Amino acid sequence: MPRLAPPLVLLFLLTSACSGGDLCAQAPRCDDTEAINCETACAVGPCSTGPTVQDCGEGATCTVVPGNRNDARFYRSRAVCALELTACTPADAGPPVCEGSRLVRGCSAYLRDIRVPCSQAGLYFAQVPACCQGSTDAGTSDGGTADAGTRDGGIPDGGALGGDAGR
Fold it and tell me: Does the global pTM surpass 0.85?
């Protein structure tokens, strides 16, 4: 019996070490009502790096949706808090709108009607709503740096406000 103890202890240590794990290595995924994603770098604002965990709340369902491989901005798969599981068309749905508590709702570039915090709106919507632009507090720990950037979702294109860099 004493010879079984070391392998059992080793097995326990390995499984307990993996259970918490690195959220970025596990993203994107849904954990009950939480959408877990990870950003290693932000080319578009608003955005924060590292793992993000969003509680979907009432009326939303977490689902993982594929990105568009032909889109340089929305190519990654993401876990989203979908208000409708059926696909929508952003061009037909109108712009995203602000909800209370610094949330944005609308038909995202991932073709789902979703709800996200302003601090992540640039990752899901081609057009970031005005309520998230130029904000100094979008829920990130950036020391008050403006999060949303330009009206085109933060794409630095050197053009006029609302410019789209030719897209």
Answer: no
